[in-house]
Amino acid sequence: MQGKKVYQEKLFSSFQLSKRVPKNNFYRRLREVLDLSFLYKQTDAYYGTCGQKSIDPIVFYKLCLVGYLENIISDRQLIEHCSMRLDILYFLGFDIDEDLPWHSTVSRTRQLFPETIFEQVFTYVLSMCVEKGMVAGHSQAMDSAPIKANASMDSLELKVPEQELETHLQKVRYQSRPDRKAKGNKAPKQQQIITASEQELQALKSRNKNWQENQDQRPGASNKGAKYTSNKTHYSPTDPDARISVKPGKARKLNYHNNISVDTAGHVITDVKAYHADQKDSQILQDATKRLKQRLRDQGLLWRNLLADAGYSSGENYAFLEKENLISYIPKHGTYKGGPEGFTFCKEENYWLCPQGRKVTFRKQKMVKNSLQNHYLTRRSDCKNCPIKQDCIGKGFEKKIGITVYVNEYERNNKRVASKLGRYMKGKRQSTVEPVFGILTQFMGLRKINTIGIQQANKVMHMSATAYNLKKLLKFVTKKAETMANQANNYFSILINTIGLFRSLLSPK
Asked: Where in this chain does the record put each Transposase DDE domain (predicted)?
């Protein structure tokens, strides 16, 4: 007999989420593992003693975690998504007939709590990973990537001299579309004033002219706002902390700089922070190293090896890492050279010997592009009648050698990188930290910063990294439980077989 289902909504029904959500469901297992009760004490100071009750801090943070676990960066879309999922409602502690918080409440609460709260939750989850044995600590891989800011290149404003600022603000926006005009200028006065030197501006002008003549086919070339802009001459009134940056083969965008460290043993993120996108990797290494070393020390872990790409290379960084008792495996930058070809360095007397046997003696130390260098010069009389003068110094009068003061640190690091262990460490870095960035940007809600300001961006990055570590933790615990169960079954089978063997040997034939 053919069946036919007729739906009629009941007036009363008995329903329990705990019976509907499967035992092996991800969010059910996450609810059992994750205890965020310490947030009540940490956030108590940010609330008043009267008025309406706010959103529960634990509910707020769990909602944020769900957004990154589900790759949702819109608060409005997040609330809609959660209301349709029974397992997520169970994870949040809501029943099916309860209304979830308003999406704007999530946004306001994110702005209310400081960065330290989000960092504390990240550290708490990291400690859970350490407790399970997922973090070895001895080798850390560091890398960075630009993350798109919540601001458009079309909204950029031109920096002007201080005396012309008020006049400029009354004029039409420079190189901007009227329909993309910012609602208000959030940038401080200092950022609206041009601070670049005449030399820097001239170099920028030459670079833009070359771009216009030879590089019109590059990505983003049709966007004039992206083509002729620089952090030295332009700023974003929408998000003053965002900076213009570009990757090879990509168009210029307003970005933030995301720097992370990953443990090579369990691929767990051990440190994360947002920086301005105009900062180089080599400029942020020391700050990231100090913070990471303290965090690992608090977890009772000993850090020994640092793995990074050539972007972090500098003599100052090599010397700093040696001072911190850390072994660096960082390839030298392409601009580094150990000295001019054909010249021999005499370390005892601190001079260079040219191919013609003339001394290039030490004169002084000076800063060149934020790098301390030793400068060596020959006497003019030594080079005046030299047979290789044209090939050596051209139209100059004496040979000049400028070389970093950290040559020894460079050489020690380069020797380690070129060794068999160094090649192994390079492969370890590429297989550890680089895939993590792909996961964060493609699957963990970090393809774009949906907030304004570097502090808010830092919160977003910490939450995304926390969600990543929680996913790794649950996967690790599940695998460990399955492995222990398989071992137990194997031991039981061996025991049964052994008993059967003894019975067969002892039984009378």
From this structure: 353-474
Question: What integer is the mean pLDDT of 475-489?
Answer: 60
CA nearest to 476, candidates 161, 40, 54, 29: 29
| Same domain as 232, residue 180 | yes
62 and 196 inside one domain: no
- Residues 162, 36 within the same domain: no
The pLDDT, as a whole number, for residue 307 is 96
Residue 78 gets the label, from left (phi > 0), alpha (psi -120 to 50) or beta, of alpha
**Residue 326, CA distances (Å) to 140, 295, 302, 317, 452 in order:** 11, 15, 10, 11, 36
Distance, in Å, from the CA atom of 296 to the CA atom of 293, rounded to the nearest integer, reads 5
Q: Are residues 23 and 168 in the same domain?
A: no
CATH number at residue 446: 3.30.420
Confidence of residue 175 (pLDDT cuts 50, 70, 90): very low
Helices (H), 113-174: 115-131, 165-169
**Is residue 260's pLDDT more than 50?**
yes
Encoded tokens for 435: 């895939």
Give domain status of residue 131, yes or no: no
Residue 315: partners with Cβ closer than 8 Å, 6 or more residues away: 371, 372, 404, 405, 406, 407, 409, 410
Q: Domain check: are 396 and 431 in the same one?
A: no
Average pLDDT of the chain to the nearest whole number: 83
Q: Which two tokens stand for residue 84?
A: 């349709």
> Of 463, 482, 499, at which residue does a domain stop?
463
The tally of domains found in the chain comes to 4
On whether residue 129 sits in a domain, the answer given is: no
Clarify whether residues 60 and 172 are in a common domain: no
| CB-count exposure of residue 249 (10 Å: 0-12, 13-18, 19+) | exposed
Domain of residue 403, residue span: 344-410
Residue with tokens 């070339």: 221
User: 358 and 215 share a domain?
Assistant: no
Report the C-alpha gap between 139 and 224 in whole angstroms. Answer: 44
The pLDDT of residue 368: 79
Same domain, 325 and 418: yes
Identify whether 69 is part of a domain.
yes
Which token pair is 378?
Answer: 């020959």
Tell me how far apart the alpha carbons of residues 235 and 156 are, in angstroms, rounded to a whole number: 6
Q: Is the pLDDT of residue 393 over 50?
A: yes
pLDDT at 69: 95
DSSP-assigned letter for residue 448: B
With beta carbons less than 8 A apart as the criterion, state whether 398 and 378 touch: yes
439, part of any domain: yes
**Which DSSP state fits 202?**
H
Flag whether pLDDT at 183 surpasses 60. Answer: no
Report which residue type is found at 100. L
Collect all residues with Cβ–Cβ distance below 8 Å to 292 and sequence separation of at least 6.
140, 261, 270, 271, 303
- Residue 328 corresponds to which tokens in the numbers above? 């660096």
DSSP classification of residue 165: H
Residue bearing tokens 């944020």: 64
Give the span between the Cα atoms of 62 and 40, in whole angstroms: 14
